[in-house]
């Protein structure tokens, strides 16, 4: 009998924006086809929760959500630091894969990307962060920035079934696209970024054009139920 794989803790984030017709679009990324795990699949940005995400250095640079609040939302079976680390992982993975960030300055304001070449520096550091040569806490400290975790809304929890050799214990989050930000067209793990309505993504999946894992489909169905941007914004207290 094969041994059941222990699921790795992970976080995934769904970024949404309004469309001109009163509906909304979600940001999906296509993984490079040559990747061993889910190559060519359409996914939401995300990945494993790293030890650094839960470190004192990192958590001291978080705003908008406390450790105890994060633990209350996710459940007491997780420690407070690990609970908040799930939010951090979602923010970090989003930045690594798409360049979109939820960083604020010491006044809890979104920094002006044009100031003193901030956007260029963040772009360079994103690549270094992605290859593991830099911690997010180091990036934030160098720019006197903080993670605004209060902009992320918790969606749901999914664990990969025991039949799979690679398993994830994943928390899904939802957030509105921050002002004046645009996702990268591609990155180290992403061959293309797509803005699509949940309805279109589900139709393409059913037609075999968008290969997706079941939790991704569940998230799209959950969001599609809200129909309009106004309903979605209100239901999930987006900001």
Brief characterization of the structure:
The protein is α+β, with helices and mostly antiparallel strands and 239 residues long. It is 33% helix and 23% strand. The protein has helices spanning 56-59, 67-74, 80-98, 118-130, 136-143, 198-206, 214-224, 229-235, and strands at residues 8-18, 24-31, 42-43, 46-48, 62-63, 103-104, 146-148, 153-159, 168-176, 190-196.
Oligomer: single chain
| Strand portion | 15-25%
Question: Considering DSSP H and I runs of 4 or more, what fraction of the residues is helical?
Answer: 25-40%
Assign an overall shape: globular
Question: What's the total count of β strands?
Answer: 10
Query: CATH homologous superfamily name?
Result: Nucleoside Triphosphate Pyrophosphohydrolase
Using only CA atoms, what is the Rg? 17 Å
Content-based structural category: alpha+beta
Would you kindly provide a written description of the structure presented here, covering whatever features stand out?
There is one protein chain. A hairpin with a 5-residue loop joins strand 1 (8-18) and strand 2 (24-31). The model has no long low-confidence stretch (mean pLDDT 94). The chain has helices spanning 56-59, 67-74, 80-98, 118-130, 136-143, 198-206, 214-224, 229-235; strands at 8-18, 24-31, 42-43, 46-48, 62-63, 103-104, 146-148, 153-159, 168-176, 190-196. It is globular. The protein contains eight helices and ten strands. The chain has a single domain (8-235), classed as Nucleoside Triphosphate Pyrophosphohydrolase, CATH 3.90.79. The protein has 239 residues and is an alpha+beta fold. The strands form two sheets. Strands 1, 2, 3, 4, 8, 9 and 10 form a seven-stranded mixed sheet that branches. A three-stranded mixed sheet has the order 5-7-6, with no helix packed on it.
